[in-house]
Design a protein that fits this description.
The structure is a single chain. The protein has about 775 residues and is α/β, with parallel strands linked by helices. Helices cover about 40% and strands about 15% of the residues. It is built from 28 helices and 22 strands. The strands form five sheets. A seven-stranded mixed β-sheet has the order 7-6-5-8-9-10-11, sandwiched between helices. Strands 14-15-13-12-22 form a five-stranded mixed β-sheet. The chain has a four-stranded mixed β-sheet with strand order 1-3-4-2. α2 (about 50-60) packs across α3 and α16 (about 460-475) crosses α25. The longest helix is centred in the last third of the chain and has 20 residues, at about 665-685. It starts with about 20 loop residues before the first strand and ends with a strand.
Length: about 775
């Protein structure tokens, strides 16, 4: 008989860590006296004695071919009791936390009857075998449902539960618990629920969670107290260090591990009992050691978590939610339906492992949205794994370039000029140019197939890039002893011919230009550094570089104005991410690996974006339009504004190259001036980052906003007014380039270019 705790006011408050009911055998007089005292002192507020019903069900269940009723049933019960009075049969259990007193069958008959409906999906020998097993569950939010399902199904005779956290109201969207349990330890709550289901099941609670001090005892038990080592670990904790530490020790002890993530029915099985050298977490995070995770912030752990889950494997809704964490969401969401599915999967896998019916390791998905799709004729189609999707991230095939040009005559100088031209910047590094030489003039063509995009309104972004390419050639010609006469848009009926260049010998011979010397060094530098004041000499050099072509340069340097501009640019970025066409085009510009960047020779190598590992992981989450569509649908996307805000917070100044008029000629001239400004900044050792997406959107807006939704137009109109206030611009201008200047370390990587042979031909 379990000793009765000290008397408390009814109903009794549970002691800290109290989760086991008190047992009073009904055939022991002293125990019966304690039961009567519980009732008399009103410590047992609710008394439930349904033993006669349990006995009737028990004896009837033992004759499956014949239904016992009435007098026949009564005789069968008497025969089962063998003359003992039913009042002294079974056990009373008192639950201090609820004030309930319940009488149930003795352990053997109780277990037989409670698990009778499991047969023969689980045979009686299998049930007996499972009752000898010990399972540990770490993390009793998601793990709580698994613990209850294990208990209901009879998988395990001993359950060891660990969680340091207490129940919050926000947990009740997925964790089955009553409101009066708020503030209670989650492991204690789960243990109490199991005890209310099966008071004979052995449950040990680690209310402090698994720590360095108790990790060994949690996994290996404590022989002195009769708690055995685990036969299986079910890991459902949020702590990344603990995930790895548990696996390190479980692998050493050859204890199998199962994990379910409540997204797409993902189940991980690691059979360390059969594969003691198996890489942790299937090797998805490399040779990661728990010790290396000490001290990492949540922000720093994000890329590891996404690497573990698989950036392309998470469901679109989870990915969309993760984009919003620390913006509109506190943490990632979990649904009761997913948790319930996870409990079913975890229990099924655990049972089969313990019965030696499942011997493999691996990662498996039971994705209900794919199993039951909203597409007639596809029901039951197996879900393909992310790595098996065809064409998901394939780079576009490269368009064959013109035939290779062999050097002859003064063609070498012309080729050298084209080599400088292709070093010019272009939107998304699309390189929208072709060059042809007829022996007298070098012609610059607009390759519209490479530049056509939502942002390139009226080809202005392409004309800007071609203007920059022409300026490179004009500046570089001096070192070759040449002078170039530029004739923009020489063929009025052919917009694809942007400029003709007529080379002549320079009267003074070769000339060294400091801007020309900076051409091979010029690049986009998105690295952040501490804000430094803009040097007066640089300010003058930049203005002079633009002014040499009669183009104006506006600079803003006040921290408050830069912060305001950062917010404006961030809102523009959000519009771009949440517009399907712009999002698709933006993602098509990015080269996600070094191999892809080298293969295509264009686009933006993701390394040039200077993303932290966490930001890179977040960027990968945004690749799919379905994710961004969901973000937009819920009014989210504020986190998408942060990069521009951070960039302007680290800027010394922001500049705008501007000139009157809005035709193609102005865009072309603006590109030439922009390139000169950029080269001047490069020569002075300053980081230069174009931030032009918003200005291209303004160009479209000014001409009526074709293709923009009503909501997008309304927000852009507000941003346009604010932009005009910052720079003093008007609708009759071409805003060739908006950029930021900063003091920063050299960039991690530079964007690549297609070879000259692909863009140069002889007529």
């Amino acid at each position: 008989m379990t000793p009765l705790p000290p008397l408390r006011d009814a109903p009794a408050e549970p002691r800290p860590g109290a989760w086991a009911p008190l047992r009073f055998p009904a055939d022991e007089p002293a125990a019966v006296a304690e039961v009567e005292r519980l009732i008399a002192e009103r410590r047992a507020i609710f008394v439930h004695d349904t033993l006669d019903l349990q006995l009737a069900e028990l004896v009837d269940s033992r004759t499956p071919g014949h239904k016992l009723q009435g007098a026949e049933l009564a005789r069968a019960v008497d025969a089962f009791l063998e003359g003992r009075p039913s009042v002294s049969y079974g056990n009373w259990f008192y639950y201090p936390w609820s004030g309930r007193l319940i009488r149930v069958l003795p352990e053997g008959p109780f277990r037989w009857l409670r698990s009778n409906r499991n047969r023969n999906k689980i045979t009686e020998p299998e049930q007996a075998s499972l009752r000898l097993r010990t399972l540990g569950i770490v993390g009793l939010s998601v793990g709580s449902a698994t613990a209850m399902t294990l208990a209901m199904e009879g998988v395990g005779g001993t359950l060891r539960l660990a969680d340091f956290d207490s129940l919050d109201l926000g947990n009740l969207n997925r964790l089955r618990a009553p409101l009066h349990a708020l503030g209670e330890n989650k492991a204690v709550i789960a243990a109490r629920q199991i005890a209310e289901l099966d008071p004979y099941l052995r449950v040990e609670v680690f209310a402090e969670g698994v720590t360095e001090a108790n990790l060994e005892r949690f996994l290996l038990g404590d022989g002195a107290e009769g708690w055995p080592r685990l036969d299986l670990l079910i890991e459902e904790c949020d702590d990344l260090y603990l995930k790895v530490a548990l696996r390190e020790r479980a692998r050493a002890a050859q204890i199998p591990v199962v994990m379910e993530t409540s997204d797409r029915g993902l189940v991980d099985i690691e059979r360390f009992d059969l594969e003691p050298e198996r890489p942790l977490l299937h090797g998805l995070v490399g040779d990661l050691k728990a010790e290396s995770l000490r001290g990492l912030t949540t922000y720093e752990k994000v890329p590891i978590v996404l690497q573990l889950l698989g950036e392309d494997a998470v469901s679109p809704r989870l990915a969309a939610s993760m984009v919003e964490i620390d913006s509109t969401l506190k943490t990632w969401p979990q649904l009761a339906s997913a948790v319930s599915l996870g409990a079913a999967l975890g229990t099924d896998v655990a049972r089969r492992i313990l019965l030696d019916q499942l011997r493999i390791s691996g990662r498996f998905y039971v994705d209900l949205e794919q199993a039951i799709p909203d597409s007639p004729g596809e029901a039951g189609a197996p879900a393909s794994r992310p790595a098996e999707r065809e064409g998901a991230d394939a780079a576009p095939a490269r368009t064959p370039g013109p035939p290779r040009v062999e050097s002859r005559g003064d063609l070498g100088s012309i080729r050298s000029l084209v080599a400088l031209a292709v070093l010019a910047p272009s939107g998304g590094n699309c390189q929208p140019w072709r060059f042809s030489w007829n022996g007298e003039r070098l012609r610059c063509h607009h390759d519209r197939a490479r530049s056509a995009s939502f942002l390139d309104w009226e080809d202005k972004a392409a004309h800007l890039a071609l203007g920059a390419a022409v300026e490179n050639m004009i500046l570089g010609a001096g070192a070759l002893g040449l002078a170039l006469r530029a004739e923009p848009f020489p063929l009025p009926g052919d917009a694809a011919v942007v400029c003709d260049l007529w080379p002549t010998a320079s009267p003074g011979g070769p000339v060294d230009d400091p801007l020309a010397a900076a051409i091979p060094l010029r690049c986009t530098n998105r690295r952040l550094g501490p804000r430094a004041p803009l040097e007066p000499r640089l300010r003058d050099a930049l203005s002079s570089a633009a002014g040499a072509l009669g183009v104006e340069l506006s600079l803003v340097e006040e921290p408050a104005t830069l912060e305001r501009l950062g917010r404006l640019l961030g809102r523009g970025d959000r519009i771009r991410f949440l517009n399907e066409q712009m999002h698709r085009e933006m993602m098509s510009e990015i080269r996600w690996s070094e191999e892809e960047a080298r293969r295509t020779g264009d686009g933006m190598d993701v390394a040039t974006l200077e993303l932290t590992p966490t930001d890179l992981a977040g960027m990968k989450l945004t690749r799919g339009w379905r994710v961004m569509e969901l973000v937009g649908r819920v009014g989210g996307g504020r986190a998408l504004e942060k990069p521009s805000r951070k960039a302007l917070a680290a800027a010394s100044a922001a500049g705008l190259v501007r000139l009157p008029g809005r035709g193609p000629g102005e865009a072309f001239l603006g590109g030439r001036a922009m390139q000169r400004v950029w080269l001047a900044a490069t020569a002075a050792g300053w980081a230069f980052q174009p931030m032009t997406a918003i200005t291209y959107l303004f160009e479209r807006l000014i001409d009526g906003g074709e293709g923009l939704s009503r909501t997008e137009r309304a927000e852009l109109e507000q941003l346009w007014l604010e932009h005009q206030e910052i720079f003093g611009t008007g609708p009759g201008e071409t805003q060739a380039m908006l950029f930021r200047l900063a003091r920063a370390e050299p960039p991690t990587e530079r964007a690549l270019r297609r070879p000259v042979e692909e863009v140069f031909s002889i007529e």
